[in-house]
Design a protein that fits this description.
The chain is mainly β. Helices cover 8% and strands 61% of the residues. Strands 1, 2, 3, 4, 5, 6 and 7 form a seven-stranded antiparallel beta sheet that branches. The longest helix has 8 residues.
């Protein structure tokens, strides 16, 4: 699936849209689209991951720490650590796992 398709899909969605963009041996790349106000509720990753904001603005929360992120910001997401994302404006992100 392309990032353009993910952006089109989120226009009709009531929650963030996360779709597989590419995968290979030991990794997955996911496109994530949000509309302003959407939230990715608290969860954890079973694999090391990196979140990269391509467009827009989000707040990434890990424990009690909140990191405001905008275009081209990135953060490493540790394994088995609870985190969440709140979207401040329409946003597009890449999540790379593995």
């Amino acid at each position: 699936m392309s990032l353009q398709e993910i952006l089109k899909e989120v226009r009709e969605a009531s929650k963030p849209v996360t779709r597989l963009v590419r995968s290979g041996e030991g990794y997955k790349m996911m496109g994530m689209a949000f509309l302003k106000g959407m939230e990715l509720k608290e969860h954890h990753s079973t694999r090391p991951a990196k979140l990269i904001v391509l467009k827009g603005s989000i707040d990434y929360t890990e424990g009690t720490e909140i990191k405001s992120m905008s275009a081209f910001d990135e953060i490493e997401i540790p394994v088995n650590v609870k985190h969440s994302v709140v979207c401040n404006e329409d946003s597009l992100c890449l999540l790379i796992q593995g």
